[in-house]
Please model this.
Amino acid sequence: MNKFINVGFGNIVNSGKIIGIISPDAAPIKRMVQGAKDAGMAIDATCGRKTRAVIVTESGHLVLSALLPETIACRVNQKEGLDS
Model:
């Protein structure tokens, strides 16, 4: 069963497809995001705000979110706890 989480501003991601949630501050992550943008594999869900989290999916897409990684992780954990 698909479990969806809100990653900010009404944007929703399938939590079962998330590999990692990382901070975009490090230089290697910034390069990874730029490469994904160039390849058309980046999904910008920030609505013009500062990117505070990068969500890596199984398909290789990167979802950029304005929420903190801790906030997204809590939402994922809450969804998993409800269905257990």
In short: The chain has a mean pLDDT of 94.
